[in-house]
Amino acid sequence: MNSKYKVLKFKSNNFKNVDDLVSIEEPLEISIKYKNNDNWVTQILSITMRTPGHDEDLVRGFLFNEQIVQDVKHIQSIKSFGAKVGQYKIQNKILATLNNSKNINITKIKRDFLTNSSCGVCGKSSLDALEIIKTKKPSLAEPKISKKVVLQSPDILRDNQSEFSKTGGIHASGLFLDNGKLVEIREDVGRHNALDKLVGRILKKKNLNPKKQFIACSGRLNFELVQKVLMTNIGIMIGVGAPTSLAIDLANKYNMTLVGFVKKDSFNIYSNKQKIII
């Protein structure tokens, strides 16, 4: 499922306005219904970000892979519900009814999901919690970075990763100055973890300066990564991969300049082009 976005594309030293197909990203709130003694209990289990479509398969696999149920026959039904919301008019809530509480791991649910927020949005307890509690927006004017800095940042990030990164199994996030100098870099097998590590390092060293800095990440750019960067008030985010629809929408809402698909001689600006020197 995808949608068209207007993009300012830089390639071979020229800028051009083009239409770009972007994968749609939407939150899915997963609830479960089960019997506790003689009473039916409905509990929000988790929120995950997904490309809409095949939601029942996603929930079925999620419940089995996390061993909430040990056999899919213990899932009585899976049904989407609630209003069709957002610009794509999609139902973003789904309920799995389990046929026997003896067949589900209630202890695991309470331990691993209801109190766990380690994976960002995935651990939030309702869709309402997705709204960022944030009134301040990054500056629309600062920093400004050149095309050369944009193009070089992925190579600098890659060159400063560890030897293990050469296996291709490690993601990285880096803090850069507006002149292209790398300030800090952190790695992890998870994109979100790499960014969390970077922000933690920045805060510990007290060298955060949003008007002079930007962040570059390996991989694609989704809602959660944009949300994490916004919390630092840094207003430019660069990625070597594609952004999702929700990442672009969030960047636009909070004045972030979002740049993706950075290659040797090209990149796409998905929001707020004024911070890239054209």
Quick tags:
single chain; 278 residues; alpha/beta; Ubiquitin-like (UB roll); Cytidine Deaminase, domain 2; 2 domains; eight-stranded mixed sheet; four-stranded mixed sheet; 6 helices; 36% strand; elongated
What is the tally of helical segments?
6
CATH homologous group name of the largest domain: Cytidine Deaminase, domain 2
Number of strands: 14
CATH topology annotation of the largest domain: Cytidine Deaminase, domain 2
Unreliable segments (pLDDT under 50, ≥5 consecutive)?
none
User: Strand order across the biggest sheet?
Assistant: 2-1-13-12-11-10-8-9
Strand content: 35-45%
Indicate the percent of residues in helices.
Answer: 10-25%
* CATH 2nd-level architecture of the largest domain: 3-Layer(aba) Sandwich
Rg, nearest Å = 21 Å
Under CATH at level 1, the class of the largest domain stands as Alpha Beta
Describe the largest sheet.
8 strands, mixed
Average pLDDT figure: 86
**Overall tally of domains:** 2
Tell me the distance between the termini: 32 Å
H and E string: EEEEHEEHEHEEHEHEHEEE
By helix and strand content, what is the structural category?
A: alpha/beta
Please give a quick description of this structure.
Helices cover 23% and strands 36% of the residues.
What report would you give on this structure?
The chain is an alpha/beta fold. The protein has two domains: 26-130, Ubiquitin-like (UB roll), CATH 3.10.20.10; 134-277, Cytidine Deaminase, domain 2. It has helices at residues 55-65, 106-112, 147-159, 191-205, 223-230, 245-253, and strands spanning 2-11, 14-23, 26-36, 39-50, 75-85, 90-98, 145-146, 171-177, 182-188, 213-217, 236-239, 257-260, 266-271, 276-277.
